[in-house]
Amino acid sequence: MLIDHILELAIIYNGNDVKRINHLLKVFSFAHHIGIMEKCDTKLQTIIDISSILHDIGIHESERKHNSDAGNWQEIEGHLVAKELLKNIDLDNIIQDRVLFLIGHHHQYDVIDGIDYQILVEADFLVNIFEAEMDEHSIKNIKEKIFKTKNGINLLEKLYL
């Protein structure tokens, strides 16, 4: 129920921006699957699910305020938008703080500090590789530098290599 409610809020927030809605649904699906396959506990899975749904929630504000959808602006604005969306949700403070941290850092690959962060980044890459039509050399480079989970690597190889 909680995840479905947050998913509905994200879809409503994105309005008729089908591209963004499709992106968040795909990232959520991959992140959820990887988290389950990596045997994350319930609290960690909740963090993974919510952060994957809301990871790019700052794009519209970034475009409006900064005329850019660059990752750094997404992180700054996304943290604020997500905090507002979650304010009326009965969510454990530790979970909410971690979700907001992940949204505010998900384009910073050199500071990945946990399996939740790792899974979010891998799921986002699994979708971005397809959406950006990346070449095999780029995909292999991403695999080597970014991917760490057994199940994320497995998905990457099955889908793209």
Describe this structure in words.
By secondary structure, the protein is mainly alpha-helical. The protein has one domain: Hypothetical protein af1432, CATH 1.10.3210. The protein contains 9 helices and no strands. α2 packs antiparallel against α3. The protein is globular.
Question: What is the gist of this entry?
Answer:
The chain has a single domain, classed as Hypothetical protein af1432. It is built from 9 helices and no strands.
Lay out the secondary structure:
Blueprint: H1 2-14, H2 18-37, H3 42-54, H4 59-66, H5 71-86, H6 93-103, H7 115-131, H8 136-145, H9 150-160
Helix pairs in contact: 1-2, 1-3, 2-3, 2-7, 3-6, 3-7, 4-5, 5-6, 7-9
* CATH class descriptor name: Mainly Alpha
Rg from alpha-carbon coordinates:
15 Å
Distance between termini? 36 Å
Estimated helix fraction: over 70%
- The count of strands amounts to 0
Low-confidence stretches: none
The secondary-structure class comes to mainly alpha
CATH fold label: Hypothetical protein af1432
Nearest-integer average pLDDT: 95
The H-level CATH homologous superfamily, spelled out, is Hypothetical protein af1432
Domains, number:
1
Number of helices: 9
The major β-sheet equals:
none
CATH architecture: Orthogonal Bundle
Give the tags:
161 residues, mainly alpha, Hypothetical protein af1432, 0% strand
